[in-house]
Amino acid sequence: MFVVCVTIGATMSWLGANVWVVSFISSLISSATAVVAAKCSLKPAGSIFFVFATAAVGSMHGGSGPFIAFLVAAVTAGFCVVLRALAHLLGEGPLPGTLPMTVQHFTVRELGGHGLRFFIAPLVAGSLGAVSMTMVPELSHSYWAMVASVAPISPPRYRDRLTRSVHRIIGTLAGVATAAFLLSFPSQPWQLVVWVIILQFLGEMYVGRNYAFALTFITPVALMMTQLAHPMPADMLLLTHSVETVLGAGVAMFVVAFG
């Protein structure tokens, strides 16, 4: 699914789709992938990575075309599958006494409501992000609002969704501060790549334990990857990410409260 999302995003980029088209198509992808993830008990739950892949790639115009994007994504996904298989052969596997994964079964109505939430949240957040860009020309990357809107609504319980929304805001602002410190030093692209690897490792270590703390490391990863792809003034990058994340998390809280 991830490879398909990257290819769809690259196709929109190649066709020069505007921000409204990208937001709408990405919201449809969000709804469909969230339903599939829930139906098949995929982890992590929700559609955050699928939205990110579709909207981020779709927002970057002037790329190499959908075929190259598909090829790179497919090779990368295949490489990750091979790594997972090798890790299993080297001894990584279920610990003795580990309980089997619980599979949650949803009714058609529950899946419909689930998909609707994952369509409305990114669509509203992306629209607000697009409007904010017209009102404040310094802002950009409205898809960050979309990502921030779907991340908190993934947990199954109402209370956990609200908590995740608050964690998203607090953790992102802490991550922006971390990124501000790291980007304050002149860096070569290879140095940013090293930081991305280190921060990604730390984020994966803590994301299952404390979401807000993990975002302290995950947020700089997203910002540094953006800088590698399309460099821009660091202060504008940090401001944009903060504003769009607060917008998206606010939309998520509204959807949780009234959806």
TrEMBL record:
Keywords: Membrane, Transmembrane, Transmembrane helix
Residue ranges of every copy of the Integral membrane bound transporter domain listed in the record: 138-255
Membrane topology reported for the UniProt record: Multi-pass membrane protein
Coiled-coil stretches: none
InterPro entries per the UniProt record, alphabetical: Memb_transporter_dom
Membrane spanning stretches: 19-38, 45-61, 118-136, 165-183, 212-230, 236-258
One Pfam short name: FUSC_2
Location of this chain's protein in the cell: Membrane
Keyword Membrane belongs to the record: yes
A GO CC term assigned to this protein in UniProt: membrane
UniProt key word Transmembrane helix: yes
Full protein name: Integral membrane bound transporter domain-containing protein
Originating species: Corynebacterium urogenitale
Taxonomic placement: Bacteria, Bacillati, Actinomycetota, Actinomycetes, Mycobacteriales
